[in-house]
Amino acid sequence: MTALTLSTSSAATLRADAVVVGVAKGAKGVVAAPGAETVDKAFGGKLAAVLETLGASGAEGEVTKLPAADGLKAPVVLAVGLGEAPAKGDGYAAETLRRAAGSAARALAGTKKAAFALPVEDAEAAAAVGEGALLGAYTFTTYRSNGAQGAKGAKKADNGKSAPLAEAAIVGAKPRDKEFKAAVERAQALAAEINRARDLINMPSNDLDPKAFAAQAQAAAKEFGLKVEVLDEKALKKGGYGGLLGVGQGSEAPPRLVRIAHTHAKAKKTLALVGKGITYDSGGISLKPAGHNETMKCDMSGAAAVFAAVVTAAKLGLEVNVTGWLALAENMPSGSATRPGDVLTMYSGKTVEVLNTDAEGRLVLADALTRASEESPDAIVDVATLTGAMVLALGNRTFGIMGNDDAFRTSIHEIAEEVGEQSWPMPMPSELRKGMDSPIADIANMGERMGGGLVAGLFLKEFVGEGITWAHLDIAGPAFHEGAPWGYTPKGGTGSAVRTLVRLAERTAAGDLG
Prior knowledge:
The chain is of the alpha/beta class. The chain contains 14 helices and 20 strands.
């Protein structure tokens, strides 16, 4: 991963291959943002004017490169747009800085070292710049053949594509200040685990089946001192995990349920995280139509987010117990696959009539939710790429939040917004439950078509232990990005919800959630 450092040098004097400055839309045109003062001085106070001449407008994410002026150690200046300049006395939002740093890091692929001279007024701003740079520099090169070395020794990634920025130095930060140091160390730990989640999501299903995913969790547990337990197909059958077995029985790669836990001797609260881990989703017998299968390796994004959040909690030494449950299966059509109309007996003992085998995520989550409830955690949060209906409702960048406690749902929404993840609280209308009534089983896995994302949440609620606070995050929209990269968001797996889960764990450790 890109190295992240703090520097006391000025943007003008730091030796680097490029210096990054921020520009914004002012009342009378482009203005240089705080942090760019020494660079602007090198341009005779006309940096903004030069950039405007080159077509820069200060729009968010806009990148403009120009040769450095005399007096600068770096040979290139990269100006990144921050959007509208804030009112006098106000600073730039952390998410604005995060996205700007990400855009700059992407534009500097193949560069050895860049100085980031963005507005860094406090430790939070430094962390945002650091996060953005580390996430924006991400590339997934595992399956590319070796490429040639780039100019001046800068490494090229496989297939001739530029390697990620090697080092990002944050100018204006305070490397000896405990608050700054802690904030940047947190950013490094968090970004590393978000990128771990991205790697897992981007990995093709022929290399990441349930067994291989479980092995990744076991390796991480050994490295970071986590407790891990893996239930294989024999243990699942013995335990009566009908949801996981029913979804996975059509595949040659059998299902797994992984429990991975961070514990702390001083912890007063326990947080259970449950992730949907369908390593490939063909839809099963209810086969997906053409054009909908190509990205279904990403249907384990919820499990990847949970896995990454638990490891991050361990790296940060959070004083809270965080238990991750990875419900792993591959949903395939075959002679042994579950058929529409079959009835499964779940781990909870409830029976489910399967009306659509492509509504499989709720089945594996149901077993994991019941199992997680047995440990009586203070709260459970599940994360899943669960429904296309949620994408229709909220688009590709926003995840939905449901829950059985309005205050908890609101807290998670506020946390998500705080860390820069777009989300929206969704209702759970009781009248939609009737649509899942089955004439032969306790419940069906499908209900009314309209409000399908809410129906899925109501189904999951049935399997949460009585009296346990619970929330459901449907990340079907933002988990996998198929368009061009933007900000710090790459093409492919995004690591959606990791930041929200980690901040939730931090707040729980601090006693801020009751």
